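Re: zinc ion structure - here you go.
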Amino acid sequence: MKALVYHGPGEKSLDERPLPKLVTATDAIVRVTRTTICGTDLHILRGDVPTCQPGRVLGHEGVGVIQEVGAAVTAFVPGDRVLISCISSCGKCDACRRGMYSHCSTGGWILGNKIDGTQAEFVRIPHADTSLYRLPAGVDEEALVMLSDILPTGFECGVLNGRVQPGSTVAIVGAGPIGLAALLTAQFYSPAQIIMVDRDRHRLDVARTFGASACIDIARTDPVAEALRLTDGAGVDCAVEAVGGPSTFELCEDIVAAGGTIANVGVHGVKADLHLEALWDRNITITTRLVDTVSTPMLLKTVRAGRLQPEQLITHRFALERVLDAYDTFAHAADTGALKVIIEVAQIA
Ligand SMILES: [Zn+2]
Ligand SMILES: [Zn+2]
């Protein structure tokens, strides 16, 4: 089969690989129909993720069709159409019993990291019963790829951890796919304001069409002064960090209101300063999280009910044969306007 393989920092290629086989009785083999590229894949290619070793098939998002199941899989049979979660979970270990699937003792974020991933014609999914979701009838299958990672991540790490409430003020720093996913799902709670902060004007324009009440272009405006002006000097109740850098995290420290929450979503490779000299008396909360995908069933229902349109996030489509072009397009988003790039692996029946 064809698969996109990581060969060490800066190196990747579309290779011919053997078909994956069932390893344990709880595995399933899924024939991938659609997958996508995540910002995390670019981190891997920069060498930022040491758990991902050369030779690994990348990708942790996708939809497909069950090809084969192990003897212990009871929830799925060959032919079932499924959503692949970026998080694999056994459902039985201490972390899973607490709903913290991201820290499953034999799962977590392993797809396209510690085991071969979804940017391939077939993928082995461990703990299939608890790591796959049946696709609801009558929804746009391709759009559901957005539910593998970015929508649950934006919602759980940004909106839920950020305690977004009716009437609250929210700033989302970073208007990439994850920040936009947080913007879409924050609106479940009717906050009074959602302020998007970025330096890419195209992404801010998109954010406005997705429901942002204000946009701050940090290339042109002092973001702290503008966020304070927009909130009558109070700052925001919820500051979501959706970039993964020291300056964007410190911006959240500067704009969070007394009693507010900084909800970190970004993947950080270097340290950020915590200004306790300014924050010690501000009653704030700082949260971190790796997505658990506990909200995936709820998000599937909102899509089915038309309350969420994940297809809004898709800007480009490429056949698997052109996956290297897809990476180029996604990596140069400032020039290409790319948000999420769909890789068409096989026909959707
Ligand atoms: Zn991802
Ligand atoms: Zn577990």
